[in-house]
Amino acid sequence: MSKETIKIPDVGSDQVEVIEICVAVGDEVAAEDSLVVLESDKASMEVPSPKAGKVLAILVSNGQSVGKDDDLIELELSGDEEAEASNDAKEGEDEPADDGADTKRTEAEAAPAADEPAEKADSGAKSQSETVSVPDIGTEEAVDVIEVCVSAGDEVAEGDSLVVLESDKASMEIPAPFAGKVESVSLKVGDSAKQGDPMLVMLVQAEAEAEKKPASESKSKGDSDSERTSEDKSSGAKDAQPSEAASEKESPAREPQSAPAKVSATPGSEVYAGPAVRKLAREFSIELGAVAGSGPKGRILKEDLQGYVKNLVENKSARSAGGSGIPAVPEVDYSAFGEVEKEALTKLNKLTAANMHRSWLNVPHVTQFDDADITELEVFRKGLKAEAEKRGVKMTPLPFLLKACAAALRANPKFNAALADNGESIVYKKYVHIGIAVDTPAGLVVPVVRDVDKKSLWELAAETAELAGKAKDRKLKPQEMQGGCFTISSLGGIGGQGFTPIVNTPELAILGVSKLTTKPVWDGSQFVPREMLPLSLSYDHRAINGADAGRFFTFLAEALSDIRRLLL
């Protein structure tokens, strides 16, 4: 196996910066695989491997400035490449040089090009319209227009960016060849263009014409210049044309500071960032002016964009606290008023806060209140205490609430439904799964009891106790907290006379249960003590109206006051 040092090819600029290294020592690369990404002031480009082989050493580093023929990598050639290189060397020895023919063709092609601008310069007009076409972009294939930097009526200086083109290997900004005013733009974002296609029409000022005239005259000085050009080309026929193209591309960049500062037609065009970074910013819909650059001279790198997006995602919950255009709550330094202790929220607390906030912003809430007389239910429940002990369960009011709510959901299908994502339809559910909010040391969780309408009170008592235990031990599985149709949030064991629970979207309603109290109730002739259970029903007003909620509450209160109705 033979070794070969791969060098930086002619990239049309004296010095460019290495912004990305695409390979590592030990990698096997094929011909045309990308080795590094280079970036100049006007374009970024990938440098492909001219041969296949194994990377032995990388001779450049990120941020390094390099130029033509600088060492890039050391490559151990594969067997096929080594044999091909040997054959090429033999053929090169047998082939005679044909510099004379190349020189004649080059002179013949160069002659009309030199005369053309001279005719324009001699026109004597104070200003005239000039069509600016796509220059030599290093490929004959059409490339995509990914950004148009100017619009009709804009004044541009020589070197200002006009459009940004992108091929499979690089994106490049096309500078204005002269100063003037844009009359019309022929390209738009998404178009394809190739060398020679018109980009725009510019009204060239007299000053620009005066500058162009000496340049055109110098290009057609006569036989002496042609002879010198012929001599230069005969010594390096293949490199002559790219060198001239490179010098033309570099000419605007020799007046730094001025060109980029005047291009402000697109967001972020005044910041220091390469075409590849600008493209990535467009894909993320990021305003480059909001991103801090960490590269040399404040240049924005891809890592800066990635860090910016990561920061947005991580702080999404905090930023959304002022959602829907509501001004954010200002930060307060509480330590200025006394001693404080700061404790980080648990992941569960953060998720609960985000979910509740999303539901509150997206669902138009209405809450209705009522009291259910559960005097007879309590007498029956307490009478089951002995049997409950034998079964090893505790009969609380919750199983009764679950059975009554399941019956109410069956009787009022609007509550056992969900709005489709597009808001154009409503999905009615044929199953009855009810979530129960459980307070745990880590935060609030809502396990779901499935098929409530098909289970007995004993089954529900055992299952709710098991789910509550799992919740407190943080052993609930994700599937045990999914698929709910309705939620019950009970504060009965804690206290309170009523509250407004937040709908657990995409569900349409939630029942809040407060502390059971004994109240005097008029029976028609006198006040009698009754066990009254305060209930709060919050619902999504997009799908449920007040009359629907009234019917639901009436059915639920009747079922709880006389549990025999659950048998009907």
Describe the protein in words.
The longest helix has 23 residues, at 99-121. The protein is built from 15 helices and 27 strands. The radius of gyration is 39 Å and the shape is elongated. The termini are far apart. With 568 residues, the protein is α+β, with helices and mostly antiparallel strands. Helices cover 34% and strands 24% of the residues. α2 packs across α4, α4 packs across α5 (237-250) and α13 packs across α14 (457-472). Residues 95-125 and 207-269 have low confidence and may be disordered. The strands form six sheets. Strands 7-2-4-5-13-12-10-15 form an eight-stranded antiparallel β-sheet, with helices on one face. Strands 17, 20, 23, 24, 25, 26 and 27 form a seven-stranded mixed β-sheet that branches. Strands 1-8-6-3 form a four-stranded antiparallel β-sheet. The chain has three domains: 3-92, OB fold (Dihydrolipoamide Acetyltransferase, E2P); 122-255, OB fold (Dihydrolipoamide Acetyltransferase, E2P) (Beta Barrel); 348-567, Chloramphenicol Acetyltransferase, CATH 3.30.559.
